[in-house]
Design a protein that fits this description.
Length: 299
């Protein structure tokens, strides 16, 4: 076993990450109307939202080894030895996913967090560096090219567009990573209302505090995907002992000075091709403004 040293080698590992059997079982799941699906794109706030939802439904329980143990990953559950139909530790049932609207099982309730695509790409690069590829072996520029060229069914822009089209559905709650950073208590309150959680100030304060950066950083091993690595690294041919962190700097835009003008231009062009062409959103900032207006109008 080894760790990939190139984009091509990493892509070969990616093909082994989730089995077709596990994906099929996830896609075949029949939701209850109260089920909560947390389905942002990778590194757009999924773990953060898992912690918020679980805190609200349990009163702040931290009785888990790693968050995926209590909020299972729909697509990977079977591969991780979990049954999506099994009872969960609390209600409503909650699942993590990275599926777009077109693929995710219908009939439940859905929370998606959007994030600046450059920030999401840099965060994913840092997350995979030293786990899914040998630390320092792939440059940020090469990773950015890979990110831009991901398959139509698995890229940031297709995912974002699929959820943006559903923003008027009452069973869909769209939020932003930047909004969580700016107003975490307000976001927790919005999620609580969406989940139908009683308006209990103490409960919401606990969920907010335990979703704070300092708390999650202190409890980092409960959010580091070590159960996922234990379940899938050998199957993917990866060396054991890889590291990954989901609670990084807590800052927005921290890595952008590392991004070249060419990469920025490529990301802008992709945004124009997808989000501007269909929705008239000239930039991610324009999306944030439209999302803010939408969420305020929905109050």
């Amino acid at each position: 076993m080894t760790r990939p040293h190139s984009i091509a080698e990493m892509q070969a590992v990616d093909q082994l990450f989730v089995t077709q059997a596990s994906l099929r079982r996830g896609l075949e799941y029949q939701p209850d109307t109260s089920d909560i699906f947390i389905s942002p794109y990778a590194k757009c706030g999924t773990t953060w939202m898992q912690q918020i939802v679980h805190g609200l439904r349990t009163g702040g329980s931290m009785d888990f080894d790693e968050i995926t143990q209590v909020v299972p990953w729909l697509e990977l559950a079977w591969d991780m030895g979990a049954d999506v139909n099994a009872p969960q530790v609390a209600t409503p049932r909650a699942f993590k996913s990275h599926l777009g609207w077109d693929d995710i099982p219908k009939g439940g309730r859905y929370i998606t967090v959007l994030r600046d695509p450059l920030d999401a790409m840099i965060s994913l690069f840092n997350f995979l560096d030293g786990w899914r590829f040998e630390a320092g072996s792939i440059s940020l520029a090469d990773f950015a090219d890979y990110y831009l060229d991901r398959a139509e069914s698995n890229n940031y822009w297709t995912h974002a567009a699929s959820w943006w089209r559903q923003r008027m559905r009452p069973e869909v709650l769209l939020l932003s990573f930047e909004g969580l950073k700016k107003n975490l208590p307000g976001t927790v309150a919005r999620v609580a209302d969406f989940m139908g959680v009683a308006d209990n100030p103490d409960l919401r304060e606990i969920a907010t505090r335990q979703a704070g950066f300092d708390f999650m950083k202190t409890h980092g091993t409960q959010f580091d995907d070590h159960l996922l690595r234990a379940a899938r690294d050998e199957a993917c041919g990866l060396l054991p002992g890889g590291t990954a962190t989901k609670v990084a700097t807590g800052k927005i835009g921290a890595g952008k000075p590392l991004i070249s003008a060419d990469i920025r231009a490529s990301f802008d062009a992709r945004w124009q091709e997808v989000m501007t062409a269909e929705f008239g959103l000239s930039s991610y900032q324009a999306l944030l403004s439209a999302l803010d207006q939408h969420n305020h109008a929905g109050r």
